[in-house]
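Hi team, as promised in this morning's meeting, here are the two structures we talked about. I've kept the exact order from the run log so nobody has to guess. The first one is mostly here for context; it's the second one we should focus on when we meet again. Sequence first, then the predicted structure tokens.
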Amino acid sequence: GVSQDFIDPVGRNIISDIGKGSPGGGERDLKINHQLNSLLDQVSSPVRRDLVSRASFGMRTPGNNDEIDVESGRIEKDREKAVRSKKGIALYNQALLSGLAYCFSSCSMILVNKYVLSSYGFNAGISLMLYQNLVSVIIVSLLSFLGLITTEPLTWRLMKVWLPVNVIFVGMLITSMFSLKYINVAMVTVLKNVTNVITAIGEMYLFNKHHDNRVWAALFLMIISAISGGITDLSFHAIGYTWQFMNCCLTASYSLTLRRIMDTAKQVTKSGELNEFSMVLLNNCLSLPLGIFLIFVFNEVDYLLHTPLLRLPTFWLVLTFSGFLGLAISFTSMWFLHQTGATTYSLVGSLNKIPLSVAGILLFKVPTSLENSASIFFGLVAGVFFARAKMR
């Protein structure tokens, strides 16, 4: 039955043709049919064996495939877990490295600016900011010309999109210069905690991001430490504190605005991307005409023409070094903000105040009292408590 079903319709046609072609031949037909059946059995036996073997293989195959699928599924899951773990480690390393680079450049920048404005007595903060940004533009343009880095072309559409955040950037730098002129580094670090409060409130209203009670408790401690530090500050200066409060507002606005502007700016570039070097070049290029305008507004031109500091080679060396630090802090801040968020950006900025405060007191020999030192320490502890609350 298997052989006939398997070779049908060819076999049945052969049998019918033989039967039809031999009328009246009884015995001969029986012999022919007997020989034909034996021939079909011989032919069909290997076919039958092949069919049975294939059927048995087909019966075993699903089980084997199931085992293979299960094993391959486990392998795929293991591979996915390994890829996810590698991505997690890579992202963690990127965030950690960018955070450390941002902390180092930020601390160094504040100490060098304080040294230029206080130790040298340089009374042109906007000019200092302008020179630092000019150094950054020259370095990034040179690296791009040599092909070591890639930057997006500065089109009018891109500059128009980036202009609002650049105005905030320039205001942040200028208010930082003016506050450092009147306030010691340790108190500047404590007062900068107000930036975290403004940033957290801005994230809540702008991005609908909610914070738990521990975060708000840490922010409240930061405000208390800033107020107590200002009251116990032996070198309190109202103008310096005003500039510092403005700097806190502008710094929080910069961190909140930058991520949204980055997403919008990518849509108007030719490649659809905007790397850190392109943003540094764009930020510093746009700050040059605005800085020149502010130099005339604040009447720093007369001071630059008469100050003997510009004739000192060591002073120019310190200024150029501060320009390199300006490029470093611009790059690392955008790099770190890419890896994290606005609150984490401000958070790490508050954590690096611990070594910065100690270095500022020791290097510049700041007169301090027990109450003021306690308030500074209280503010630094509040920053650490805020960090732990955000991590949870």
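And here is the second protein, the one for discussion:
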Amino acid sequence: MAQGEAAGRSTAKPQDQGWAWMVLVAAVVLQGLTLGFPCCIGVFFTDLQHEFQASNSQTSWFPSIMVAVLHGGGPLCSILVKRFGCRFVVMLGGLLSGLGMVSSSFCKSISQLYLTAGLITGLGSCFSFQAGVTVLGYYFVQWRTLANAVASTGVSLGFTLWPLLSQYLLDEMGWRNAFLIFGGILLNCCVCGAIMRPIQLASGSLSQSAKPEEEPGSRAEETQLSNGASPHHPMLQQHTRRTKCFQMLHKYLAFDIFCQNKGYQIYTVGVTWMMMGFALPHVYLVPYAIHNGVEERKAALLISIIGFINIFIRPLTGLLSGHRIFTGRRIYLFSLAVLLCGLSNFICVISAEFSVLILYCVILSIAMSGVGALTFQVLMDVVEMDKFSSALGLFTILESITLLIGPPLTGLLVDITSDFHYVFYNSSFFLISAALFIGLSFCALEKKTKLREASKAHMDSPSRYQYSETSTEPKAESKSPPAVEYITSI
């Protein structure tokens, strides 16, 4: 009897209570350390240029690689999570992030920074962030939406604190010592990962990651083995490798959804195009302000203002967009937020006075809050939830490509013209054109769908048998969190 009670206690569900809230605190800190970190790179932009005698384009490759890897490493992170678990991947990410920044403090050329701070730190931040958010899905069921909303405030806190700390360390001890200290700070991701201990569920509610699915490739291999083929036959091994590779691409990169789902196609292309200009203010705002005579401390404060306003506006935007009034209309709210981002850039073109730049940061932060809160909600609207994981894999990889090439191309334009205004012209062009493309395309798609449905209803009414069949068809639902989940934040 006592053994039965002990077994019951050991398999009790820990979701939504007790240690789950400690995990949530760790997730907040984790998001501040990882997603918030790239925003401070602009503080070091001018010093790195002078140190390595690099152009704007060459210097901007460093933060571009970091952000692109941070967003595009989702599929690799999910494979590791499935194989080793969230706790291990978060701690691995912390080690990589710390190692990358410590190595960066000893770099002798800007190209070495691409590898250390760009690739290694970016990949480590990706692992820590995405595995840290994935574990929330296991610890929270009833309060999952609230937990994700609270965790996302860590990004805004990071945006607020990282630039201020960066400017202080830069003034006191230079960029090399600052990067060395950053390496130690990022190692705290390992502490956050240690808090995220593996969850022990009741025997009837094992997570999907604990029950590997039988893949078609393994069934095909078993069939050939039963027919007498040797498992070590070269042709069979090559066929098995090709099959597994195809299955992995199909699982993590939703090319079939992209070809069949017009809404997903429009949204993915639009957001990918938008990312060419979305990150430009984060990279170039501080150098632009310093170039126009703003004191370095005040210039670093501009990024902190954007983050501070995000702390309050982003949750409000998420709550507002979740109201039933906006059901089916969130895509237009998203387009409006992107359009406002693009239009706000013209404020910087008008004047580079510090007071004007503060106004710009306030408006940009409000618009960015809308984009950040709606990006994945809209994706959930246009893609069925059972296909969301793979759809998000392709989505994040495509946007990471434009995040990578956007700032360096704009930096090249600034090098040629010696005019920082082209940063904001470029950003406005990509953002406004993306907003118009997404909004108008979905409007046309919606009208086309309504016309098709009206025409179909007019020509032939569905039979009662067909209606009852589709209305009573059971849908399998799983309360367990997804085994594979890519999550990024903007």
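Starting points for discussion:
Residues 255-454 form a domain with the Growth Hormone; Chain: A; fold (CATH 1.20.1250.20).
The chain has two domains: 17-198, 255-454.
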